[in-house]
Design goal:
heterodimer, A: mainly beta, 6-stranded mixed sheet, B: 7-stranded mixed sheet, 4-stranded antiparallel sheet, 50% strand, globular
Chain lengths: 116, 116
């Protein structure tokens, strides 16, 4: 079985602050994929990033960056200079062919509130 | 990529009635997935729908309560039967990118169901 843990239930920051959302995962698969999704109040899920287990390079996309560390089974997400529009629930998810039964396992989500 | 259209986007239903949610994809896909997201919770997979075969249900979900149809490679429906207030949730349809592995899981905009 596989598991995704997002220990931070809710985070509040002031605009322009940097914020890191934590994600820790468990899997027995050697090949797996990690994802981050954003869910704004409107409810749709917005894909942010996919990372496979063989690619530990960190990635930066504008104000977003991701830190993947297999040694600690973590895939953390940092928003630099946060904005009010970043307010949403963020989900980390894991896909594994064997341990996950070929389906996505989601974490419980982190509610990010960015205030002026 | 895939574009998923889900209907209705929201509905308010009386307890004891049934609601059918439609999911249309703009390309042919092998598997379609139905998720439930209860208020303030993460996404939980209800079932996987393959064209030409019965849907595969996850633990805790049964066909009598959530019958699924998959008449072709671009369309699926999920019915929430004999609804109670506990069924109030967002229901999301999803498809996956190319195999092997997973390039991305695409989601519809969700159906926000309230049962009164």
């Amino acid at each position: 079985a596989q598991k995704v843990t997002q220990a931070q239930t809710e985070i509040s920051v002031v605009e322009k602050e940097d914020v890191t959302l934590d994600c820790v995962y468990e899997t027995r698969d050697t090949t797996y994929y990690l994802f981050w999704y954003k869910q704004p109040p409107s409810g749709e899920l917005v894909f942010l990033i996919r990372r496979n287990s063989f690619d530990e390079q960190n990635e930066i996309s504008g104000r977003y960056s991701w830190n993947f560390q297999k040694s600690t089974s973590s895939f953390n997400f940092t928003i630099t200079a946060s904005q009010v529009v970043d307010s949403a629930v963020y989900f980390c998810a894991l896909w594994g062919p064997t341990g996950g039964g070929n389906k996505l396992t989601f974490g419980t989500g982190t509610q990010l509130k960015v205030e002026l | 990529s895939a574009v998923i259209s889900q209907k209705p986007s929201r509905d308010i239903c009386q307890r004891g009635t049934s609601l059918t949610i439609q999911c249309q994809v703009d390309s042919q896909v092998t598997m379609m997935f139905w998720y439930r997201q209860q208020p303030g919770q993460s996404l939980t997979l209800i079932a996987t729908a393959n064209q030409g075969s019965e849907a595969t249900y996850e633990s805790g979900f049964v066909i009598d309560k959530f019958p699924i149809s998959r008449p072709n490679l671009t369309f699926s429906t999920l019915t929430v039967s004999n609804m109670s207030p506990e069924d109030s949730s967002i229901y999301l349809c999803s498809v996956e990118g190319q195999a092997p592995g997973l390039t991305e899981a695409f989601f519809g905009q969700g159906t926000r169901l309230t049962v009164v």
